[in-house]
Amino acid sequence: MGKWKGVVLIFVIQIIYLFGCSSEKVKEEPKPVEKEVSCTFNQLDGECRVFSSFVGDQEWGNSYSICTLGTCSEGDCENGKGTLSYPGGSKLEGTFKKGKLNGAGSYEGCGSSYTGTFKDSLKGKGVLITKTKSNRDEDLVQYYDGSSQDEMRNGKGIYYSSSDSNIYEGTWKDDVKNGTFVVYSNFRGDFPLSEKGTVLKTAYDGSKKVTYVNDRDKEEIDQEERDRKYQAIKEAKEREERRKQDIRKAQYEKERMRAYQACRKAVRSSISVRGWDYMGRMNWYNADLKCRSNGMRLPTIDELKAAYEAGMTKTWNFPEYWSSSSGGSIDHYYMFSLLSGNSRKESYHHDKGVICSPNSMPWICQEF
Predict the structure, then answer these.
(1) How many CA atoms lie within 13 A of 197 on its CB side?
(2) Percent of residues, the chain, with pLDDT higher than 90
(3) Is residue 143 within 8 Å of residue 115, measured between CB atoms?
């Protein structure tokens, strides 16, 4: 019996070891965390909070919103003075008429606060301070002291946003700057920014007048227009210069062809006067020396081409001939192929056919 107990124990240990070592621990996936991403508040819509789920910094799944209406926690919220309270902590106080705010009032909720007048629960003239978070989780503060209509800046008002640290004073239309504004730069003071509609003098570094068109600096728009006109003029000048270059190029090619035709005529004349002398096959330096020693010279590459096109090379003995035209370096010169009718650069030490042209021939067949 003791022997079998030992066998069973060893078997159990092996099973535990086998499964314990071979199985991998399953890595737990991070669970989504639900966060509130935004919040809006007014009496008509109530307190609306938007939620979304995140895995780390990445949004996961669809967002959803929950809107709740307030309950009258104090006074008369139908026709009289009262206070509406909301589950998320928002609070609205003022004078109600048929269940809507009319007259003086205030609210706090969703990081915003407003003190001023209402008409049918919509903001009128007052001070609105809004605090939100940027995409980088930075605190953004907006301040507006002025008139509103349809929940937008409309009429005269003073506006500040911490995104650019400037204060804008002027007349608004549907949250957009139009007309002349006074811009106070680098605000670094404390709220309130204004007192009875006037910007406090200690809240900024300096001021200037700026004209806006649909929320854009008119000077910037004018500069863009000047840049556009300048670019258009520049492009027109470039097109005109390219046109003139094309004309000059066409004239050059026309003159080159005229000179080439004169070259061909000169080649024919030279053969009728004295003829080109065949000197055999050798490298370029020996060819040049041979022609000079006979009071002649190597023909240019265009002279060889002209002779080829005139049919004067049919009786020549070699397929390739040296020319006097340089290949761009001291050891390379152009040679002409009677087989292809084309020219190419060759090293001077190669042996090619040599034919010499008379010095009395006009030097007009050089490369044009």
Answers:
(1) 10
(2) 27
(3) no
* Residue 296 and residue 167 share a domain: no
Among 160, 156, 181, CA closest to 171 = 156
Using CA atoms, how far apart are residues 206 and 368, in angstroms rounded to an integer? Answer: 69
If we measure between CA atoms, which residue out of 273, 256, 364, 355 comes closest to residue 308? Answer: 355
* Boundary residue ending a domain (183, 215, 247): 215
User: Do 82 and 197 share a domain, yes or no?
Assistant: yes
Q: Which range marks the domain in which residue 318 is found? A: 216-368
Q: Of 188, 215, 242, which marks where a domain is finished?
A: 215
Summarised one tens digit per residue, pLDDT across range 168-218 is 989 999 999 988 999 888 877 777 776 766 677 666 777 889 999 888 888
193 φ, ψ (degrees, to nearest 5): -80, -25
Q: What is the pTM of this model?
A: 0.53
Q: Please name the helix (run of DSSP H) or strand (run of DSSP E) that holds residue 198, with its range, or none.
A: strand 198-199
Interatomic CA distance for residues 262 and 270, integer angstroms: 12
